[in-house]
Design goal:
This protein has 559 residues and is of the alpha/beta class. The chain contains 21 helices and 19 strands. It has a 9-stranded mixed beta sheet with strand order 5-6-7-2-1-8-9-12-13, with helices on both faces.
C-alpha cells in the first residue's frame, strides 16, 4: 500500500519547516477521521475532510505549532463510478502512495482480545503546503487479517470496525504523539477520536481536570439523532474505555446508568471547551445540550475554507484591479472548462452563455437535492425557455449504505436523460469540486433549516464568482445580504411538517429563480456582475480559514 522513499525519516519527532509564530506556540494535535488535502490522497469523504484540509493549510501558512492526526484509509471512502445504465457504482479500490514518509513509529493497543499494531506515516509539509499530518495504519504484517482491515475503509458500515477505527484514531494517535515528544492541547474534530479522552484519563491517574486542561472538541452535528452512539457493553468488551470500569467511564462521560454511550455528550463532559461551527449552530447546540449543567461551554467558531487553495488567481486579480472585462472573460473560460468535463462524462454540450445552476454536496435526505424538481413540469418549462434557459448540474456522493440517497442520485441520472440542459456527475472529490465552483453561476443550497451545522461549499463557490442561492442556514446568515451578495430563500416555519416545509421552500425557490435570478442574469448583466463582485469581496477574509485557524488558537487552545 505504501512505497516509502529510501531516506532517513525527518518527521519521527515533533518538528516543522519553520519557527512557529509566538502567537501560536502551544503544541496542538488536531484529530480528524478525514483530511481532504489533495485529489490524489483519498483520506476524506466530504465536508468534514474539506474543512480539516483547509485548517491544515492555514495552520501552515500562519506558522502554527500544530500537527494533524488521521487514518490512512487503504481503500479511501469509495470511488464513485457508473454502472452500465449510468447509475452510480461503488468501487473500493486499493490506494498506493509514494510521497508519505515512514516515520518508523509503531505503537500498540488492545482491541477486544487482539493486540493491534499501528504504524505512522507522515505527510510532510512541503508536499502540499500543510502542517505535518500523521496517518495511521493497521495494514502491516505484524497484525492478523482482521486487524489489518480496521483502516481499510472510511466509515465502514460494520459497527465493530467503526468502533475499532475510533480506538486507532484516539488511542494510537495519542501514543504516536508521545513518541513525537508530547503535546499541550488535543483537539477532537468531531467525536470519532473519543477514546483519546479515556486514554488521557488513565494516563493522568484518573484526574478528570487534568484531561479537561488538555482536551477541546468541535461538534458538527445539529441534532441529537445524528450523533454516534453504541452500547456500553460493546464499548467495554472492545476496550474502548482503555481499561476503565464501565460505570466509572459512563459517570465521567455524564451518562451514568445509560446502556448507550453518546460520543458527543461524552466529549462535552470530558473537554475544557467545545465549539459549534456557525453562530446559528452554536444556538442550536446550546439548546440541545444546555440542560446539562456539567458540560463544557460551547462557543461558536464559524467554519471557513483556505482562499489560497480554492480561489482562482486570475479571477481574483481581475477583481482586485476592478477589471470587469477580464473578470467576465475568465468566468466564461472557467465555465467552459467545467463543461468539457460535463461533455466527457455525460455527452451533454453546455453553453458558457447560459445561466448555470449547480447543486453539489453529499447526497442526504435533509439536503434535498431534488427540491427544485417538486413541480417537474414547471422546472421543465424553465429549462426549455428559448430566450432565457438554464443549465442544471448535480454532483455528490451518497453514503453507500443510504439507499434513499442512492436512489435519489439514480433518479436524477435517469431524469437528466429526458430533460435538456441537465447533467448528473460522479466523482465529487476535490478536483470536480473545484471545477463546479469555478463554473457555476449559481450555487444552490437547499437543506431543511437548522439541519446544516455550517456548510462550506458556498464559501469557495463565492470565491470563484458563483452567487449563493440558499436556505438561510449554517454559515449563510453570517454572510448573505439578499439581492446584494446572494439570493436567500425565506425560511419556512419550523413548526410545519417536513412535507409542508418542502412545499413552502420549493415555491419560494421557484419564485426567486423566475422573478429575480433569471431576469437579472439575462436582462441586467451589470447588476448580476455587481452582485457577483460583492459576493467575492464579502466572502474573504471572514470566511478564509486563516481567520478560523487564528480563532482556534485564541479562543480554544489558549487557557
Amino acid at each position: 500500500m505504501i512505497h516509502t522513499l529510501p531516506e532517513i525519516a525527518q518527521y519521527s519527532h515533533w518538528r516543522h519547516p519553520y519557527t512557529p509564530d509566538p502567537k501560536y506556540n502551544q503544541r496542538v494535535a488536531y484529530f480528524s477521521m478525514e483530511f481532504a488535502i489533495d485529489q490524489c490522497l483519498k483520506t476524506y469523504a466530504g465536508g468534514l475532510g474539506f474543512l480539516a484540509g483547509s485548517h491544515m493549510r492555514s495552520a501552515y501558512d500562519l506558522r502554527q505549532n500544530m500537527v494533524g492526526i488521521g487514518i490512512l484509509w487503504k481503500r479511501g471512502y469509495y470511488d464513485q463510478t457508473r454502472q452500465e445504465n449510468g447509475h452510480m457504482n461503488v468501487l473500493f479500490q486499493e490506494k498506493h502512495y509514494s510521497f508519505l514518509e515512514d516515520t518508523g513509529i509503531k505503537v500498540g493497543l488492545k482491541i477486544t482480545h487482539a493486540h493491534v499494531y499501528v504504524k505512522a506515516y507522515c505527510l510532510r509539509p512541503e508536499t502540499f503546503g500543510t502542517v505535518p499530518i500523521y496517518f495511521l495504519t493497521t495494514d502491516i504484517p505484524e497484525n492478523d487479517y482482521l486487524s489489518r482491515t480496521i483502516t481499510e475503509r472510511l466509515y465502514d458500515d460494520n459497527e465493530l470496525t467503526r468502533v475499532a477505527q475510533s480506538m486507532v484514531l484516539g488511542i494510537a494517535g495519542a501514543k504516536v504523539l508521545e513518541a513525537l515528544g508530547g503535546v499541550d492541547v488535543y483537539h477532537m474534530n468531531e467525536g470519532h477520536a473519543l477514546p483519546l479522552a479515556y486514554y488521557l484519563y488513565k494516563q493522568h491517574h484518573r484526574n478528570i481536570e487534568e484531561v479537561r486542561k488538555r482536551l477541546v472538541f468541535t461538534t458538527h452535528t445539529p441534532e441529537k439523532a445524528g450523533n454516534e452512539t453504541h452500547e456500553t457493553h460493546l464499548m467495554q468488551v472492545m476496550n474502548f474505555f482503555y481499561g476503565i470500569d464501565t460505570d466509572e467511564a459512563m459517570r465521567i462521560s455524564g451518562q451514568e446508568g445509560s446502556p448507550v454511550l453518546d460520543y458527543t455528550l461524552a466529549a462535552l463532559h470530558l473537554s475544557r471547551k467545545a465549539n459549534a461551527v456557525s453562530k446559528l449552530h452554536g444556538i442550536v447546540s446550546n439548546q440541545m445540550w444546555g440542560h446539562d449543567d456539567d458540560i463544557c461551554p460551547i462557543i461558536s467558531i464559524t467554519n471557513a475554507q483556505n482562499k489560497h487553495y480554492w480561489a482562482d488567481t486570475e479571477l481574483q486579480k481581475a477583481l482586485e484591479n476592478d477589471d470587469d472585462r477580464a473578470l467576465i472573460a475568465r468566468k466564461k473560460q472557467m465555465k467552459a472548462e467545467l463543461f468539457r468535463f460535463v461533455a466527457n462524462q455525460t455527452g451533454n454540450l453546455f453553453s458558457p452563455d447560459i445561466l448555470t445552476i449547480v447543486w453539489a454536496r453529499r447526497f442526504a435526505g435533509y439536503k434535498r437535492a431534488d427540491l427544485i424538481l417538486r413541480d417537474l413540469g414547471y422546472f421543465e418549462r424553465i429549462l426549455r425557455d428559448r430566450n432565457r434557459p438554464i443549465q442544471m448540474i448535480w454532483a455528490g456522493k451518497p453514503y453507500p449504505g443510504d439507499s434513499n440517497a442512492v436512489n435519489t442520485f439514480n433518479y436524477l441520472v435517469d431524469l437528466s436523460r429526458t430533460l435538456p440542459n441537465c447533467a448528473v456527475l460522479t466523482g465529487y472529490e476535490l478536483h470536480l469540486s473545484r471545477l463546479l465552483k469555478n463554473g457555476a453561476d449559481v450555487w444552490l443550497n437547499t437543506p431543511r433549516r437548522t439541519r446544516e451545522a455550517s456548510g462550506t461549499s458556498g464559501m469557495t463557490a463565492a470565491m470563484n464568482g458563483a452567487i449563493n442561492f440558499s436556505i438561510s442556514d449554517g454559515w449563510i446568515p453570517e454572510f448573505a445580504i439578499d439581492g446584494v451578495n446572494a439570493f436567500i430563500i425565506p425560511p419556512a416555519d419550523l413548526r410545519c411538517t417536513n412535507p409542508e416545509q418542502d412545499m413552502i421552500d420549493h415555491d419560494n425557490l421557484m419564485e426567486i429563480l423566475t422573478r429575480q435570478i433569471i431576469p437579472t442574469y439575462y436582462n441586467y448583466p451589470e447588476q448580476w456582475l455587481k452582485i457577483m463582485k460583492q459576493s467575492m469581496r464579502d466572502v474573504t477574509p471572514r470566511f478564509d480559514s486563516d481567520r478560523m485557524a487564528d480563532e482556534y488558537y485564541r479562543l480554544m487552545y489558549q487557557q
